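[job 0412] stage=fold_complex status=start
inputs:
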Amino acid sequence: MCPTPTTQAKAHSAEAHRFEAYLRSKKLKLTGERMEILAAIFQKDSHFDAEALHAELKQQGRDISRATVYRTLDLLVQCGLVRKSSLGSSHANYEAAHENEHHDHLICLNCNKVLEFFRPDLEKLQDDICREWQFKPLHHSLQIFGLCAHCVGKADDSIIQHRVAQIHT
Amino acid sequence: MCPTPTTQAKAHSAEAHRFEAYLRSKKLKLTGERMEILAAIFQKDSHFDAEALHAELKQQGRDISRATVYRTLDLLVQCGLVRKSSLGSSHANYEAAHENEHHDHLICLNCNKVLEFFRPDLEKLQDDICREWQFKPLHHSLQIFGLCAHCVGKADDSIIQHRVAQIHT
DNA sequence: TTTTTTGCAAATCGTTTGCACGCTG
DNA sequence: CAGCGTGCAAACGATTTGCAAAAAA
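[job 0412] stage=fold_complex status=done
writing structure:
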C-alpha cells in the first residue's frame, strides 16, 4: 500500500524535522532546494565535497546552483546536521552527522579511504589536557594520515612522502 | 669580541646546515632568497602565513616575490624544517620545527592564541588505535578549538558559535 | 505584500604556473 | 655554460557576493 520509500519519503525524516525546526527558529524559509539538498546528503554514505554534491543533484534532475549548495551546506553545518572537515585536502569535505555520534578519522594517503573511529579514552584524555590548560573545548579534530591495511607495502614511497608534505590540516 | 648574533649569524645555524644538506641532496641550488627566507622563519617565535612572511621580508628590505616565498616554504616543509597546519583557518599556516619536537594545538576562537602541548600518552593512544585498525600512521594532527583561560566568559557566544561552524580542519 | 531565497555571473583570495631573464654550480 | 631559480603577471580552483527575478510566509 505504502509507496516504496524514495527520496520523497525523506520529507519526514528526523533530519528533515530538525532542519525545519532550525529554519523556523531563525525565521528562515523552508524551500524545495534546501530539502532536496538535505535528502541528497542523508542518502549518501560517506564523505563528499560541494562539487560532488552539486553534480549528484544535477544528475538526479535537480539543477540547483552551486551558490545554493554552498549556502545550504553552511546552514546544515550551523544546525549540526552536517559536519565539515577537510580530511587533509585543501578544500572542504562534508559528511552527514548521523546519530550525532562524534568520531575521528584515519585517512589512507594511498587509496583515500577514510576510516572512522570513536575512543572514549581519547575524549577523556582531551578533557584532561583542556583542564590542565584551563581551556574550554568547543570542537576538536584528530586526523591520522597514513596507509590502511590494504595499502601498506603496496604504495610508492616517494609518492606517499610527497602526499604527506601536501597535507592540509 | 664576537659580533652580536644577528640575522647574519644565522648563516651557520643548525637549520641552515640542514637546509643546505637537503638542497645538495636534491641537486637544488643554495640561493640568497632561500637562505633569507629560512632565517626569517627561524627568527619568528610563532605561527605565520605566507603573506605575513612575505610582508616581513619586504619590511626587512628584502623584496622577495610571493612565488618564491611559496616555493621555498614547500621545500622547507619537504625537508622537515617547517611544519604546515591551518589551525582552523582556510589558508595555510606554518611554524618553524624547532628541535624536531612534535606537538599539538589548542586554538582560542576568541583571541586566536595558539597553545602547544605534547602528551606522550596521547601519542601512545594513537598508536593503539592504529594497531587496532592495522593502519600505518605517517602523520597526525589534533586540534582542539575553544576558549583559552583569558577568554572564557568574555567572548560573545553568538560570535563564537559562528566561528566554530567556520572551522576548517 | 513583505521578506527571504535563488541563479547568475562577476569578484575574491590564497596559491600555482608559464615564461623570459638571471644566477649558481 | 648548463641548469635551476626568480619575478612577473596571468591562471587557477574553491568559495563568496551583488543584484534582479522568483518563491515562501
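[job 0412] summary: Residues 1-99 of chain A form a domain with the Arc Repressor Mutant, subunit A fold (CATH 1.10.10.10).
[job 0412] exit 0
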